[in-house]
Amino acid sequence: AGRACYSTQGRPEPRSAPGAMFWRSPGFVQASPVGLVLDKESFTLEELLEEDDVIQECKSLNSRLIDFLKTRPVVEKLVSYLVDPPPADADPKREYKYPYLACEIFSCEIDAILSALTDDDCALFSRVMAFIDVPVGTRLNSMLAGYFSKTVACLVSRRQGECVAWFQANPRFVDRLVEHVGVLAVAEVLLRLVGADDPGSMMPMQSMLMSAMGASGDQSAWLADTPLLDRLLDALDAESSSFAAPSADGSPSEGQNPEDAAATRTTRQANAAEVLVGIARGAPSALAAKLSGKEAMSKLFDRGLRASPGQGKYGDGAEGKGGNPDGSRVTAHDGASSSPLVNVLDIAIAIVDAKRAASGPMQTMRAMLAAETGGAPASSPPPPPPEALATCVRYLEPLVAQLDVSGDGSSQRTTWGTITPPLGMRRVKVVDMIATIVGCKDDAAATKILETGALVKCAELFARYPFNNFLHHHFENAVAAILDWGHPALVSHLFASRADGGVDLVGVIVDSPRTAETTRGPVRAGNVGHVTRMANRLVAVALGESPSPAPEGNAARRTTTTRVGVGVGGFDDPDDDDDEESEEAAARRKDREAAAERSRSIAAAALDADARWRAYVDGELGDRNQIENVYKWACGRPAGMDDLGLNEDDEEDGDFDIGLGAGFSRDSYHRYGGADDDDDEDEE
Fold first, then answer.
1. Which 3 state secondary structure label does DSSP give 134?
2. What share of the chain is helix, strand, coil (3-state, %, to 5)?
3. Please, which contacts does 230-234 make with residues 24 or more away whose CB atoms are closer than 8 Å?
4. For residue 451, with 0-12 CB atoms within 10 Å meaning exposed, 13-18 middle and 19 or more buried, which class applies?
5. pLDDT level of residue 327 (50, 70, 90 thresholds)
6. Can you tell me the distance from the alpha carbon of 45 to that of 82, in angstroms, rounded to the nearest whole number?
């Protein structure tokens, strides 16, 4: 036993040794359970769905199985499982298993099966879409809605022409999609329909490629002629009567719980805003152009400010024992006290902020196309749409009014103490909007910012809320954008005293509390790092160095000369040492030098005349830089692609090395004993 048997010719017999696995045994073939069902003279779809590997066989393109599944009666039954609610007395397989498997079969993207759905003028696709053709306020089955979303998204991607023609012939279903936008699954269908949420589909990729080449590749232009955009903007309105909240039993709501109604309304607004942001940040399209127009932008802000008149106030000021003071959700996106203005500002920022759009797939496609063709990539982000920016500036005054906290008596308990009043997402988004407008470098915007005192309000919030780093980040970005721009009035406004209506940036830096009182005692204020970064930026500006910020996320390059425009969305480096400088590059360089000189002259004069600044630089700033210098931390720090110390002429291959000059020293590495084991083994 245990020895191989040999024939008279001395060769081993075709018998596996004891303990060998069955797949190593010659001649052993395991029959597929699906194949056994298909071998029967008659069988049902349910018998196939009972087999666990039916989906795997579909993905393996089992021809016999596909020939069965693509027949019209079978596809009709799969559609019935997908969208028809199960009977009240249905067994669990009919209720859960069969709808799931029907969705997975369609999602395998088998051409023959998808063709069956779009044949005969999309008759079966019409039945799929009938899932949302219900009265307004009727609640959709959440499980079936997810399967519906996945199937329709697959069809829109793989059968674009047929689906677009069907929607054009049945425009009311676009309206039905918007009516149910409060369901996340339906919102995902809308995102796919506008080409904003399908990285693997040829529809948005083709649009981006055609747009990058300068040709007309807008695959969703037909949507600009539908009421889709207006309906999405209406969905942001809390008082819109065409979006009734559903009741628990599926009938239109009457006397619904106010808290549930508020949550439903807020979810609808957030989902509609997500679709609009996708339109704004996607490939250039007629729908995006319509959204950035004056009419749409005005309607957008009217929707948000109508629900947030006057001051931004959270809660009613009542004392509570846990969570938020009055027991309601007062500072998040959800709940009765949430504001549509948060979603409105998300959309507006997506439209006018060219730098954020620059990191999207459209600019990546342009950079890739330039690399392949040998052409020059875009040197800077495209300018914001003029009408959109003008509308944002026009509504700046009521937005700044939202930052006033003097009349807000609400409070919120946190792990470190009670905030009175809480900052809230609404105010954070308003500060983000102000920083975005400043970054657009528009003279009319600068005038409006000075008139409204927007930067003064932002500076007050910066000092008042020491633990909201989103707020600190946006305020620092606004200061950096002004110094980079070199606008004389705005730069002077930064250094003017509060008595003269200025920001008093030196006062913000010098007088901001370094500690904050909490329930656990005094702790370091969370905005101290931002204070140090702004101070180092002022030092650099006063010395005549480039005030342009380093790439996003690189906090180390504070006082050294920075590379303008590196690593943002495929744009080239204007300071590359090319043999020949183009006229456009030379003009940009001169503009940067002029802006730097304007900022330097104003900043240097203001800082030299301020005794607080001289004392701060000679004392605290040096100590803070020593503490915050990550290159001197004992634990070390991983290297970055453009770390401190690299000049324009330095050679950098981008490889990561744990040796000297790679962000931490070998001493730090060896002190953990991480590189000593091999040497010890060799010595043994």
1. coil
2. 55, 0, 40
3. 230/299, 231/174, 231/175, 231/178, 231/179, 232/178, 232/181, 232/272, 232/275, 232/276, 233/272, 233/276, 233/296, 233/299, 233/300, 233/303, 234/303
4. exposed
5. very low
6. 14
Given a cut of 80, whether residue 126 has pLDDT beyond it is: yes
Task: Give the DSSP H/E element, type plus range, for residue 523.
Answer: strand 521-524
- State the amino acid at position 222 in one-letter form: W
Q: At what angle do helices 469-485 and 424-439 cross, to 10 degrees?
A: 10
Q: Which token pair is 263? A: 């949550």
3-state SS track over 535-601: HHHHHHHHCCCCCCCCCCCCCCCCCCCCCCCCCCCCCCCCCCCCCCCCHHHHHHHHHHHHHHHHHHH
**Which residue, 400, 621, 610, is CA-closest to 507?**
610
How many other CB atoms are found less than 10 A from the CB of residue 121?
A: 11
Scanning the structure block, which residue is given the tokens 């499980």? 143
Phi and psi at residue 515, to the nearest 5°:
-130, 160
CA dist., res. 388 & res. 348, Å (int): 8
Amino acid 286 reads A
Query: For the packed helices 488-495 and 469-485, what is the interaxial angle rounded to 10 degrees?
Result: 130
Q: Which residue has the tokens 């769905």?
A: 49
Tell me if 564 sits within 8 A of 592, measured CB to CB: yes
The DSSP result for 67-102, as a single string, is HHHTSHHHHHHHHHHHHSPPPTT--HIIIIIHHHHH
The CA distance from 426 to 403, in Å, is 9
On whether the CB atoms of residues 351 and 294 are closer than 8 A, the answer is no
Single-letter amino acid, residue 678: D
Q: Is the pLDDT of residue 203 over 50?
A: no
The DSSP bridge pattern shows strands 418-419 and 412-413 to be antiparallel
- What is the pairing mode between strands 521-524 and 515-518? antiparallel
Residue whose C-alpha is closest to residue 434's, from 386, 490, 379, 380: 490
Expressed in angstroms, the distance from the first to the final Cα of the chain is 44
Q: Mind listing the pLDDT tens digit for each residue in 352-367?
A: 986 665 445 555 655 6
Report the amino acid identity of residue 528. Answer: V
Range with top average pLDDT, 95-104, 200-209, 256-265, 298-307? 95-104
Question: Which residues sit opposite 246 in a β-bridge?
Answer: 252
How many residues are there in the chain?
A: 684
CA dihedral 603, 605, 609, 612 (to 10 degrees): 10
Which DSSP letter does residue 32 get? P
Q: Report how many helices (DSSP H) and strands (DSSP E) the chain contains, helices first.
A: 34, 4
- CB 203: neighbour CB atoms within 10 A? 22
| Radius of gyration, CA atoms only, the chain | 31
- Whether the CB-CB separation of 533 and 480 falls below 8 Å is answered with no
Strand partners, 52: none
Cβ partners under 8 Å of residue 530, min gap 6: 462, 469, 472, 473, 475, 476
Neighbours of 650 (CB within 10 A): 8
What is the separation of C-alpha 368 from the centre of its chain, rounded to a whole number of angstroms? 22
In DSSP terms, 524 is beta-bridged to: 515
- The reported pTM is 0.77
Can you tell me the distance from the alpha carbon of 84 to that of 127, in angstroms, rounded to the nearest whole number? 10
DSSP 8-state class, residue 13:
P
518 beta partners: 521
Task: Return d(Cα 512, Cα 612) in angstroms, integer.
Answer: 13
| Measured distance CA(280)–CA(289) in Å, rounded | 8
Contact criterion met (CB below 8 Å) for 566 and 573: yes
Question: CA–CA separation, 307 vs 601, rounded Å?
Answer: 44
Nearest residue to 279 (alpha-carbon basis) of 185, 204, 367: 204
